[in-house]
Amino acid sequence: MNAPASTSMLRALAPGHRTMLLGTAREVSFPQGSRLFEEGGRADRFWVVRSGVVDLDLHVPGRRAAVIESLGHDDLLGWSWLYGPHVWRLGAGAATPVRAHEFDAAAVRDLFRRDPAFGLAVSQWVGEVVADRLHAARSRLLELYGPTAASAWTE
């Protein structure tokens, strides 16, 4: 649940870039059970979790949404804002009360245009997070729906 060193904003971004990004943040809170975004919705913001747990889920036709990963302190929540067409690839819900830094995606992308080194640093950080999330999603789906999961459902 806690961000690996490579995907933690505090470790991934140089102090100046981290300060620049945090300068655009606002503090937000979400009560337990609230939905932060839905798969297929417009991705116009992102968060870095300060406290609490957020579950990322994937719609599975004919079944309850599958929780792919749980995010906590210092984890990036949301990457679809960076890559067109800026649509959420997963859904997210607060598993506990959550406090986070919220970032307006358009404002951050504007900073990219003004400071390409900042844009490169943030893009690399987000790319590492995406790679980790894809690996986690694959592993979780194999746990849930792979051949050994199928036999566990019938035993």
Automatic annotation (TrEMBL):
One Pfam assignment: cNMP_binding
InterPro entries: cNMP-bd_dom (IPR000595), cNMP-bd_dom_sf (IPR018490), RmlC-like_jellyroll (IPR014710)
Lineage: Bacteria, Bacillati, Actinomycetota, Actinomycetes, Kitasatosporales
Protein name: Cyclic nucleotide-binding domain-containing protein
Domain Cyclic nucleotide-binding residues, every copy: 9-78
SUPFAM superfamilies from the UniProt entry: cAMP-binding domain-like
Organism: Streptomyces griseosporeus
